[in-house]
Design goal:
About 75% of the residues lie in helices and about 0% in strands. Helix 3 packs parallel to helix 8 and helix 4 packs across helix 11. The two termini are about 25 Å apart. It is mainly α. Strands 1-2 form a two-stranded antiparallel ribbon. Strand 1 and strand 2 form a beta hairpin. The radius of gyration is 21 Å and the shape is globular.
């Protein structure tokens, strides 16, 4: 019971409920079911990207190119829709998933085969992918009137009171929870991030495991690319610029250790929801949404400091137990 109360997920749930109660005390309409659905829908892209980023960070890597991957995939999907308006949505979804996976695999190959630090690789591809968008679009926008109704309507379609975009975030969360907890690859993510040397002795290929983490992150970024462009009915070079900071912040706030090997998928989702509520609440309480970047940065610093302190405390507990066992 004590361990449960100390878990990051329970702490975050408490903080989110307290935050909602605080906002509702001044603006009761904020917690109306319709508004909460809007908050969940607005936060869904962040949740989807945080799922992939969490897996990458678990393997001691980081993917700073997720927003550029999203923007490039979204632009390709939008241009494809303009060129072929009758193309079925499932085909566009497959294209988005495949292109995102290829872009993620490119990061993974560089990290795996060339042993380049992940932060260097993804900083480079962050710029490369933005540059490719400019080249293929010639710097032009794809606007709503050029897109088909089916293209823009898919993420907004209502199923049982929730938009498809929110349902996709929920289904992706369930899939990642099962994959990480129940499959050898999911356990390998933790093993590789927790202790790479020990992982090698158990027969795990560290580079290959990190490669699959990047592919997973890229695939989710590609999916998010189509959903983002279709929901907002616009595609341009700078779309989602800087969004990678929010994604990393969501993971760190959710308890994903930046050094890898620790944290949960549900923690990353709760971290995303925490940021999503703050983002939606800022205009309500009369604070500029641009403060959200400052809040995200501050939250990263505080969360990393909190994680480091918790790690040291846990280390002392382990040492204390070892001493007690040795004396016994």
């Amino acid at each position: 019971m004590t361990r449960l109360l100390k878990s990051r997920e329970v702490l975050l749930v408490g903080v989110i409920l307290a935050l909602l109660a605080l906002i509702a005390s001044r603006f009761p309409a904020f917690i109306q079911p319709g508004n909460l659905v809007d908050v969940l829908t607005d936060t869904s892209p962040l949740i989807i990207l945080a799922l992939g980023q969490a897996v990458v960070i678990l393997t001691r890597c980081i993917d700073l190119s997720v927003a550029s991957n999203l923007a490039l995939t979204g632009m390709v999907c939008a241009m494809l829709n303009v060129a072929y308006p009758g193309l079925p949505i499932p085909v566009i979804l497959v294209v988005a998933l495949a292109l995102g996976a290829v872009l993620g695999a490119f990061n993974g190959i560089l990290v795996w085969k060339l042993s380049i630090p992940p932060i260097v690789v993804t900083l480079g591809t962050l710029t490369i992918y933005r540059g490719i968008i400019f080249v293929i679009s010639d710097g032009q926008w794809v606007n709503a009137h050029e897109m088909s109704a089916a293209f823009t309507g898919f993420p907004r379609a209502d199923i049982l009171g929730l938009p498809v975009l929110a349902w996709i975030a929920i289904l992706a969360t369930i899939a990642l929870l099962v994959m990480v907890a129940r499959t050898p690859l999911g356990r390998a993510f933790y093993a590789v991030g927790g202790n790479p040397n020990a992982a090698v002795y158990t027969g795990l290929n560290v580079g290959r495991t990190q490669f699959w983490a990047f592919v997973l992150s890229g695939t989710l970024s590609g999916l998010c690319g189509y959903l983002w462009v279709a929901r907002y009915s616009v595609a341009y070079v700078d779309i989602a610029r800087g969004f990678e900071l929010e994604v990393v912040a969501a993971c760190v706030i959710g308890g994903i250790a930046i050094a890898g090997g620790a944290g949960t998928i549900m923690g990353a989702v709760l971290g995303a929801l925490f940021l999503g509520i703050i983002k939606n609440a800022l205009p309500v309480v009369g604070i500029s949404p641009f403060w959200q970047l400052a809040i995200s940065g501050a939250a990263i610093v505080i969360a990393v400091a909190f994680n480091a302190r918790a790690g040291r405390r846990q280390g002392r507990i382990i040492l204390k137990r070892a001493e007690q066992e040795a004396q016994a």
